[in-house]
Amino acid sequence: MAARKDTTIEVDGVEVRVSSPDKIVFPEPGLTKLDVVQYYLAVAAGALRGAAGRPMVLKRFVKGIDQEAFFQKRVPENHPDYIDTATLHYARGTSAEEAVIRNAAGLAWVVNLGCLDLNPHPVRAEDLDHPDELRVDLDPMPGVEWSQIVDVAMVAREVLDDHGLVGWPKTSGSRGLHILVRIAPEWDFHQVRLAAEALAREVENRAPGLATARWWKEERGESVFVDFNQNAKDRTVASAYSIRPLADARVSTPLEWDEVRVRRPEEFTVLTVPARFADRGDPHAGIDDAVGSLDGLLALAEQLGPSGMPPRAGDGSGRRASTMPLIEVARTKTKPEAVEALEMWKAQHPEVVELLHPADVLVDGMRGSSSLWYRVRVNLQHVPEAQRPEQGDLVADYDPWAGKEWPGRE
Q: Mind listing the pLDDT tens digit for each residue in 287-341?
């Protein structure tokens, strides 16, 4: 049977076109593009609770999950009338009219564009300057087990409770956990980030060695990073019921607190979550009724005082000077290329590799102009100084800015 070029589905009385419905999106479980659309329709009430009414960045996987997505801030000009828009102004002086979905037809529409996960801003379209959601992102470093992530989550819950706030946990859809907190839209982005940083620092104070609020990755060790910077303006995270671009079609899934310790992220996929949703509903159904105040966390921020600032390089560049013995291995366009470059470096330095800890290898996705690129670094802190290789030529040296024209430059 020949693959269909497109099909039309009816969603609450609205006709939505799905192009290439038979295209395989997830080869391992054999899920097609239409399967992905139908998944989102099955969990629409929960997905819309997390994403509806919020401007979102369109993260489009038009070439498949094994290729890098590109990030589209501006809504396509030919968007249907059931897609609203909001104009966001960014810190660097640019602006973009972004998509705002309101209903299940909007979910189907963004999926048809190649979006797998939903990436809404923490503000409502009606008030773009005052977030109504504080986001706690528990990001484990390599070598960290699920039990440690859970321990940190419980400490974060305790800190939130002590400061009059309710946390709603969900799997990130990868290795970590997110905790969402509804807040009154009375504080600006700077204040919300300050409150989130105070939360992170307090979690670190209560769980030293397990959790860290250190922003620089090479300083975290084998701990869970409480990523407060996800609350900075212009940042987005995958919202509830988002499908992540992993081979098993894993889903960022809301949990009850008593499930956090006994469930695992890999249990929740496109194939399993719809039945869970139909059977028990959305564990986050009450989130919009649990609106809290940031007064407590902001008072904590004042009590903790300014966080320590990193030293700066002495070459006049103003760049941060790392306190760790770092060497850069490669810069690549894709993650597979980064992994390949790392393996090549390891083959050249076997005596160093055996001394490294899991968290000493840093493979970071870096945001480019419209897509990610990857930087590979190695922290030599566990290698005796006499055995540390010097910084040499990069194994791969991709330039993410090559060919880009900068406004105001000749």
A: 999 999 999 999 999 999 987 655 554 455 445 566 788 888 898 888 888 889 9
Q: How confident is the model at residue 70 (pLDDT cuts 50, 70, 90)?
A: confident
**83-117 residue pLDDT tens:** 999 999 887 778 999 999 999 999 999 999 999 99
Taking the model in full, what pTM does it have?
Answer: 0.81
Which structure tokens are listed for 122?
């923490």
160 — pLDDT class (breaks 50, 70, 90): very high
pLDDT tens digits for range 25-58: 999 999 999 999 999 999 999 999 999 999 999 9
Q: What is the pLDDT of residue 192?
A: 98
What distance in Å separates the CA atoms of residue 165 and residue 158, rounded to the nearest whole number? 9
Q: Which residues contact 139 (CB under 8 A, 6 or more apart)?
A: 172, 176, 224, 225, 226, 227
Report the DSSP beta bridge partners of residue 71. Answer: 59
